[in-house]
Write a structure and sequence with these properties.
Blueprint lengths: L2 H7 L16 H27 L1 H19 L3 H19 L9 H10 L6 H9 L11 H13 L4
Helix pairs in contact: 3-4, 3-7, 5-6
């Protein structure tokens, strides 16, 4: 073999081509899949919470309407509507439909056990106020405590 022919066969050094961004490495695929699953789980959890707490938002909206009606003209009808609203809220929170049929003492006990922010006077008015002949109404502070009670209810 002739050394000149061997040298003629050599070529210049070629640098490698630019590294492409596609297809990504397996680590990026795993990271993307993990982020996708985490996003889907987060969206599912938030939607589930939003749907499960729909009754609470509706109850608070209705209570705001009752507050404005009570501010203009306090009456026994408003008190009855507040009691009905509280019974529906407790029924939705604890998934027990028989709350509406409770008597005054049982209703007071149920309200007291629900972790309410209501004081004894509020409990007395809410359990027996619409049965008495004297005009007993809720004040603004009591309506605020009722709002806190509804907000504090946990879904079963």
């Amino acid at each position: 073999m002739d050394p000149n022919t061997l040298l003629d066969q050599l070529r210049d050094i070629q640098s490698p081509g630019a590294i492409s961004w596609w297809p990504p490495a397996i680590g990026w695929w795993l990271l993307g899949a993990t982020l996708l699953l985490l996003s889907a789980f987060t969206i599912y959890t938030v939607l589930r919470w939003y749907r499960r707490s729909a009754w609470k938002r509706a109850a608070l909206k209705e209570l705001r309407a009752l507050e404005s009606a009570h501010a203009t003209t306090p009456s026994d009808k408003n008190l009855t509507q507040v009691i009905s609203l509280l019974k529906r809220a407790l029924s939705a929170a604890y998934q027990t439909p028989n709350i509406a049929a409770l008597g005054p003492s049982q209703w007071r006990e149920k309200l007291n056990n629900a972790g309410s922010h209501l004081n004894e006077q509020d409990l007395l008015i809410l359990s027996e106020g619409h049965y008495s002949s004297n005009q007993s109404t809720l004040d603004d502070a009591a309506l605020t405590r009722i709002k806190l009670t509804i907000k504090g209810l946990k879904s079963a």
